[in-house]
Specification:
The longest helix has 26 residues. The protein is of the alpha+beta class. Strands 1, 2, 3, 6, 7, 8, 15 and 16 form an eight-stranded mixed sheet that branches. Strands 11-13-9-14 form a four-stranded antiparallel sheet, with helices on one face. A three-stranded antiparallel sheet has the order 4-5-17. Helix content is 38%, strand content 22%. The protein has 16 helices and 17 strands.
């Protein structure tokens, strides 16, 4: 037998050993037996009252106007909240912070531990045309409350205040202070709202046992799972906005330049869409997936158990977990149909995976745009948040209440692609989580910042049950919502 045969046999043996190793690692991630998910039914009267309240909140057109804008709707909204929730407003201390944000303190007579903080926001993004119903009519139809803010995030404000009103009426008295922080400008960065509330916390030297903001949901379709998965986000990605600009001498459109300013910017955008940022599985995302693995098929367990196989496959199913994303969101150019624009600009929305910075992305884009006469400027940026502990009592409490209210769903720590108010508050607690207790389909999730935003009436009652049980569990009271 020649030397060549020995080499081939050696290669075959190495491949066989690699295959066996891959399969063994996957087999060690054992599959759990699953049972159907049947969330307990919420009280129809509770659901209806919450739906009516949310419908009213959605009628206030609190679209962030930015600095110097008209905030009349915010004043009307907070007057309505005071009227709608009289017991909560007579029991809790309310401050108007940063002109239009609301900070509530529900005092404990004799606090036995650090306070809790629950967050929401009062503002919404603009509503484009093409809705089935008016985006600011707050209509209840087909089992849903429809309107801009129904899922982002007036439903959280409504459920928290509904919950507080019910608990106070039931005689509940907390054994630690409970705070509600509702920012007024979250959709435009939150600096004047949540940022000012954070400065209030700093002046008062507050430190919270736990902070819970909007974020992950009970999501259907995670890695092709049919069961909903409760994603309790323990961190959020960083964010940057980058402007891509091209300039030219302009002129009549009948005599175009070899490359127009608009054409250069459009080609730059096209390159970002056809050549995605390199995928990567961070250690924390890998740890999250290993916790989810027992609920997945053998194929997914095969990938998760062998991390070197995972990145590309994961990017196809959950791109926000597997890469820094670069998304074009705005394009501005000329004004006349027959004139070449002298300047064209596009905005790129960038969500930064942990371990990557805006400078990293700018270097990548400069290489990607070689040959195009465009310039890049970072308009704003912040790095990814810290990663909160998911092996502590606070996380375990949230997971326990999720399973109590929604049944035996998989509960995993996760990574949020969006920016929340919690980013302003993370220095005030070691346990900062982002979770909204709603079961959502892909179609319902598409309504967030999109058309036909809506939330089911039944889910409002379940969310109230979640918040009520979590508050009474962590604040040490004797009574809780049924």
């Amino acid at each position: 037998m020649g030397v060549g045969w020995y080499i081939l046999i050696g290669i075959a043996a190495a491949l066989l050993l690699t295959l066996v190793s891959v399969l063994v690692r996957a087999a060690r991630l054992k599959r759990e037996r699953t049972s159907p998910i049947y969330p307990r039914a919420a009280d129809p009267e509770v659901c209806r009252h919450a739906a009516d309240s949310l419908g009213e909140l959605l009628r206030f057109q609190t679209v962030s106007p930015g600095a110097g804008g008209d905030y009349t709707e915010w004043v009307r909204l907070r007057d309505y909240l005071k009227w709608r929730y009289p017991r909560a407003h007579s029991t809790m201390e309310r401050e108007v912070v940063g002109l239009h944000s609301l900070l509530y303190r529900w005092p404990a007579p004799r606090p036995t531990g650090p306070p809790l903080l629950f967050c929401g926001h009062l503002d919404v993004v603009p509503a484009e045309e093409g809705w089935q119903v008016g985006p600011f009519e707050g209509i209840i139809s087909d089992g849903y409350v429809w309107g801009r803010g129904a899922l982002d995030g007036k439903q959280v404000v409504a459920c928290l205040l509904e919950c507080a009103e019910s608990l106070i009426n039931s005689g509940f008295v907390p054994k630690r202070d409970i705070y509600f922080a509702f920012g007024h400008d979250n959709e435009v960065g939150g600096e004047d709202g949540s940022g000012e509330i954070a400065r209030v916390f700093a002046r008062r030297h507050l430190h919270f046992e736990m902070i819970l903001d909007e974020g992950g949901v009970l999501k259907r379709g995670v890695l092709s799972l049919r069961r909903p998965v409760a994603e309790i986000c323990v961190a959020e990605k960083g964010a940057a906005y980058v402007r891509v600009t091209a300039q030219s001498n302009g002129g009549h459109a009948s005599e175009p330049e070899r490359r127009t300013a608009l054409g250069a910017v459009c080609e730059a955008i096209s390159r970002t869409e056809f050549k995605k940022y390199p995928s990567r599985v961070t250690p924390h995302v890998h740890a999250f997936l290993k916790l989810l693995a027992p609920n997945l098929s053998f194929g997914w367990r095969l990938y998760i158990a062998n991390r070197w196989l995972l990145a590309r496959h994961l990017a196809a199913f959950e791109p926000s977990w597997a890469r820094t994303t670069i998304t074009p969101t705005a394009l501005h150019a000329g004004k006349a149909a027959n004139a070449l624009p002298t300047k064209a600009e596009a905005t790129l929305d960038i969500r930064l995976l942990h371990g990557e910075t805006c400078d990293d992305v700018l270097r990548y884009l400069r290489d990607l745009f070689i040959g195009l006469d465009v310039s890049l400027m970072a308009v704003s940026s912040h790095e990814a948040s810290k990663i909160s502990d998911y092996q502590c009592d606070a996380f375990a409490s949230i997971a326990e209440i999720v399973r109590t209210v929604f049944g035996p769903v998989p509960v995993i720590p996760s990574l949020l692609a969006q920016t929340t108010s919690a980013l302003h508050y993370e220095m005030f607690s070691d346990n900062v989580y982002r979770f909204s207790p709603f079961i959502l389909s892909q179609a319902e999730m598409a309504g967030v910042h999109g058309r036909d935003e809506r939330v089911s009436v039944d889910s409002l009652g379940l969310a109230m049950a979640f918040y009520g049980r979590l508050i009474t569990h962590m604040a040490g009271g004797k009574q809780q919502l049924s």
